[in-house]
Amino acid sequence: MLCFRVPVRKAPHCLTKKVLESASLPQIRKYSKGAELLALHVGAEEGGDGGPIDVQTDAGTTTLLVTHDQEEALTSADRIGVMCDERIVQLDTPEAIYRRPATAFVSESVGVTNRIPAVLDGNRIRVFGRNLGIDNLAAAGSNGTSLEAPIRPADLALSHDSAGSALVTSLVLREAITSVNVRSEEPDQALRIDMPAHNAMSFTVGHRVVIIPRRDTILVGNSNAALEEEDAA
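Predicted structure:
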């Protein structure tokens, strides 16, 4: 991932999507027009006491950071560029990259996802009893194609049901959020569902639940291979 921090007083025109999408990694330094390429750890910023990135920004320097650390990218950048095969797949704000990924590859690259098996039926797929639209339909293939839908833990909900097809296996408190881990029977896999901690208090280990997708549309990728840049077409 490429992470950009641009000083407020400096126009970010040199980091536009049009320029960067056509640039390979060796060309990024040239196109960034003075941006400083840094391979450094910005963990100091987590404590709120500044760090190398803040020093560069305060000095009026546009900073380009190359990292594989998702948390580092999401917390230190004004703009994130997710790359695949030396090409930028999506260039956007951290929030947009996380909440509105352009492709299944981007969704898998940034943040936690559950990979749910699904089969294409026309222009929709069925996930946990709901027929969902497909955001990247061109990448879905033909009817009957085996696909995987990357779904974020917060994009799934749970409902109490003694006849439900999923079983609560554990709960993990993450400050204001609790991860409810479940075992689904169809498909047979472990899943993580995130919700406000006060909502999770009603779920206990060993109870049966129903899994409900929160979104009406979803990204998909081919389950026979890794979710690759192909779905960006």
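Summary: Residues 6-50, 225-233 have pLDDT under 50 and may be disordered.
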